[in-house]
Amino acid sequence: EVQLVESGGDLVKPGGSLRLSCAASGFTFSNSWMSWVRQAPGKGLEWLGRIKSKTDGGTTDYPTFVKGRFTISRDDSRNTLYLQMNSLKIEDTAVYHCTTYNVRIGGALDYWGQGTLVTVSS
Amino acid sequence: QSALTQPPSASGSPGQSVTISCTGTSSDVGGYNYVSWYQQHPGKVPKLMIYEVSKRPSGAPDRFSGSKSGNTAALTISGLQAEDEADYYCSSYAVTKTIIFGGGTKLTVL
User: Fold this and answer.
1) What contacts B17, CB < 8 A, 6 or more positions away?
2) Each residue of B15-70: pLDDT tens digit?
3) Between B30 and which of A106, B71, B73, B101 could a Cys-Cys bridge form, CB atoms 3.0 to 4.6 Å apart?
4) How far A76 CA lies from chain B's nearest CA (Å)?
5) Interface of A with B (CB under 8 A)
6) Rounded distance, CA B56 to CA A57, Å?
């Protein structure tokens, strides 16, 4: 069974940094492309970026609004995905989900973790 | 890149059909057959219902179908059931190598 378990969410002050983790199991993590998606309270889904498998280059892509602030990385030896967030703003308050990014089905996000809550407040 | 445009709400009675639209541009929806649809019940994680415009993953009922014409994709739910009441989000791959979501549609089963 595929499992994605996020951790690291916390209350942080504006301008602060936070690193989220996502522990993966039940599938071959090293062969998988992965993504992060967030959802602010009562709002819609926002895609935060993707990292390819190392076999496919291990590169990342981000939407314009997070470039330079958020960084996605992976540790295949630990089956773990990371999201490093810097210069946090109040509007970054959201539940952050890691997802699989299934390139075989057009980049659909077929498995989602339950998410971890990040609150940015002074 | 701007979010895809979805109607904020939709509704239908049990047994009826309802269609939710998702409008983008030639740089996303119109340019690729990589539109997905997700269902999200309150307090739950989004669930993939449609991928590559019209394909259903295992576990998605065949009452759900997808289509696309030009820059607009659509999700149709036939034989509406009470458990279909949820929020629905479309997404598309874009020319910027990113994924763009729609703003979401709240479906009410009357």
Assistant:
1) B76, B77, B78, B79, B80
2) 999 999 999 999 999 999 999 999 999 999 999 999 999 999 998 999 999 999 99
3) B71
4) 23
5) 35, 37, 44-47, 49-50, 61-64, 97, 102, 105-110, 112-115
6) 29
